[in-house]
Amino acid sequence: MALSKDRRIGKHAILLLLSEDSSEHVAMLEQLNWKSCTGKVGAMDTHKVVAAIETAAKKNGVINPDLYRESHALYHAIIEALNGITRGQVQIGSVLRTVGLSFAVLRGNPYENEQEGEWVAVSLYGTIGAPVKGSEHETIGLGINHI
């Protein structure tokens, strides 16, 4: 059950998110038979961030919207990534904070043994702060869950 060095799903999710030109990275991920999508969301409500990421993953075929276990795995990866963004307190608007985030969702098998199955990773990067222009700072988060 060894994690493959060149198939680390969290690392690839972060690289995909931060790459200036993601097309080359996406092509490499497709060779691994991995699925991915990227997007942006800005909100003062946590549920809007979750909804934007879930919608993008479903519309881009990263997860099957008809299988609860896939939506459930994605949800937990999103919440884990939000924990990083919000420093462990998954609250935004209720504590007068707003976020402007880019996200990447990646699905694949990071193990040498294919029988280990697929995992989903969610990476978030952007700003968080008071809802006043110029009162924000950078933030990053990563969540990984098995499907």
Automatic annotation (TrEMBL):
Keyword line: Activator, Histidine metabolism, RNA-binding, Transcription, Transcription regulation
GO molecular function, one term: mRNA binding
Function text: Antiterminator that binds to cis-acting regulatory sequences on the mRNA in the presence of histidine, thereby suppressing transcription termination and activating the hut operon for histidine utilization.
InterPro entries linked: Regulatory_HutP, Regulatory_HutP_bacillales, Regulatory_HutP_sf
Assembly and binders: Homohexamer.
Keyword Transcription included in the entry's annotation: yes
Record-linked Gene3D superfamilies: Hut operon regulatory protein HutP
GO biological process: L-histidine metabolic process; positive regulation of gene expression
A Pfam family it matches: HutP
Name this protein carries in UniProt: Hut operon positive regulatory protein
Gene from which the chain derives: hutP
Family (UniProt): Belongs to the HutP family.
Entry keyword RNA-binding: yes
Superkingdom field: Bacteria
